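Support request from a user on the community tier.

User writes: "When I paste my structure tokens into the form, the page sometimes reloads and wipes my input. The last time it worked, I copied everything first. Here is what I submitted, just in case something in the input itself triggers the reload:"
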């Protein structure tokens, strides 16, 4: 620990991303990446953008991309903010909308583990809302004093969704707080809350091109909300770095959002694979949490999650294991191609003797 670090950094426990190993070739089912390549139109746009214009700064407002997203979501461009991945948008949201003193912000006890990291980094109090053994998010837990709410929908790492009616109930009961919905995985079967934006100026929906558009390596996310909220994000961005999205990313994301046919095709393939693999695992005796994401959360009453994680790694398959209360007996498995998922099922059968 460096003596030059600030007290805040010394005391923080940073987020740990899924491993990206180099020691051998693995079937990589551990970081919820899309198994299919990006839209050919997006790749071509990136190639075309990689020219002499890279000497110039990109558009700091991302106007053309925001207009395309607005058309896609039936909003105005001023309701759209773009940034360097949804994680950056979440990071901007904490200082933009949450106070460092007073009432806590609320999020589920089992959810995306970056939320408590941001809270610690920005010195914001938070309270964890309990979930049951199937990781259900109960709207009643959010009917208490707070200075903000964050809900991942579908949730991570469980993949379980929250209904639009439950979300609207939470919004109705918290009109004086900003409610952030992290919809990183919503395109794989969840219910988006974007249609509620016109009725709830306190609603901010954060989405990403990383998952359903196969652009995790490009780093583009976007936030949707009232002009009051997107304006707050602009103020934070321009206090850090006015040019967060580069020219290549803007070009690739623009064509990705415009190529809806490709998007529909690949996400449908992932949903179909998820349902097939989930059904087979349940036949084998595993508990599989109903998922609306591009991953499944599974456990066994015979083999601990850490054992399954280690044995699958030995078989050349990477999955994610979280050594934390309530989830340590589970592994999270990203949905890969059908060939990759067949190899995963074969490995599971070999490891468990099924």
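"...and here is what came back when it finally went through:"
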């Amino acid at each position: 620990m460096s003596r030059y670090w600030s007290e805040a950094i010394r005391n923080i426990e940073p987020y740990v991303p899924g491993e990206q190993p180099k020691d051998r070739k693995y079937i990589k089912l551990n970081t919820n990446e899309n198994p299919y390549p990006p839209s050919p139109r997006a790749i071509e746009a990136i190639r075309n953008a990689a020219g002499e214009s890279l000497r110039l700064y990109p558009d700091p407002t991302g106007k053309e991309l925001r207009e395309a997203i607005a058309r896609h979501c039936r909003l105005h461009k001023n309701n759209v903010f773009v940034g360097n991945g949804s994680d950056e948008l979440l990071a901007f949201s904490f200082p933009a909308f949450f106070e460092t003193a007073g009432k806590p912000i609320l999020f589920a006890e089992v959810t995306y583990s970056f939320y408590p990291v941001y809270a610690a980094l920005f010195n914001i109090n938070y309270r964890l809302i309990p979930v049951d053994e199937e990781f259900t998010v109960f709207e009643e837990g959010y009917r208490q004093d707070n200075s903000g709410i964050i809900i991942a929908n579908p949730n991570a790492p469980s993949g379980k969704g929250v209904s639009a009616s439950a979300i609207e109930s939470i919004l109705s009961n918290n009109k004086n707080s900003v409610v952030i919905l992290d919809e990183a995985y919503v395109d794989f079967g969840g219910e988006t809350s974007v249609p509620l934006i016109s009725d709830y100026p306190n609603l901010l929906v954060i989405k990403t091109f990383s998952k359903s558009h196969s652009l995790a390596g490009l780093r583009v996310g976007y936030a949707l909300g009232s002009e009051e909220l997107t304006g707050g994000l602009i103020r934070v961005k321009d206090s850090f770095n006015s040019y967060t999205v580069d020219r290549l990313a803007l070009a690739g994301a623009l064509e990705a959002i415009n190529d809806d046919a490709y998007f529909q095709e690949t996400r449908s393939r992932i949903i179909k694979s998820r349902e097939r693999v989930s059904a087979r695992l349940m036949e084998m005796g595993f508990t599989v949490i109903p998922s609306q994401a591009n991953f499944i959360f599974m456990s066994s009453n015979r083999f601990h999650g850490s054992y399954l994680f280690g044995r699958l790694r030995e078989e050349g398959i990477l999955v994610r294991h979280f050594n934390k209360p309530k989830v340590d007996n589970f592994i999270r498995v990203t949905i890969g191609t059908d060939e990759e998922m067949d190899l995963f099922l074969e490995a599971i059968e070999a490891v468990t003797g099924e």
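Agent notes: The reload is a front-end session timeout and is unrelated to the input. The mean pLDDT is 95. The radius of gyration is 20 Å. Escalated to web team.
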